[in-house]
């Protein structure tokens, strides 16, 4: 996809504690703020529902899939600086239903 990509990994004992969200928010915020990026990308295994949901909450949207040689699917997502707040607002509204 080109450009700047966020990459993160957490040990299983750290899952489900909000650490990934905190980390991703800080990195994306730094990218848009201090670095002046206009877009940030992420790639996630399609089976990683928790990571996909976390990125969606941060405003990332699905762009395309990559079919890997082993038969798995990698999802490519991105967030544009101005779309980040709108994505988070949309998620909050959907969660309130």
Automatic annotation (TrEMBL):
Organism domain of life: Bacteria
Pfam families hit by this protein: Acetyltransf_3
Ranges of residues in domain N-acetyltransferase: 1-86
SUPFAM superfamilies: Acyl-CoA N-acyltransferases (Nat) (SSF55729)
GO molecular function, one term: acyltransferase activity, transferring groups other than amino-acyl groups
Name of the protein this chain belongs to: N-acetyltransferase domain-containing protein
Organism listed in the record: Streptomyces malaysiensis
């Amino acid at each position: 996809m080109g450009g700047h990509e966020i990459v993160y990994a957490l040990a299983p004992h750290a899952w489900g504690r909000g650490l990934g969200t905190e980390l991703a928010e800080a990195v994306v915020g730094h990218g848009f703020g201090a670095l002046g990026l206009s877009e940030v990308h992420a790639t996630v295994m399609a089976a990683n529902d928790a990571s996909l949901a976390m990125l969606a909450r941060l405003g990332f949207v699905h762009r395309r899939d990559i079919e890997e040689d082993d038969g798995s699917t990698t999802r490519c997502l991105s967030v544009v600086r101005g779309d980040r707040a709108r994505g988070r607002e949309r998620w909050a509204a959907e969660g309130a239903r």
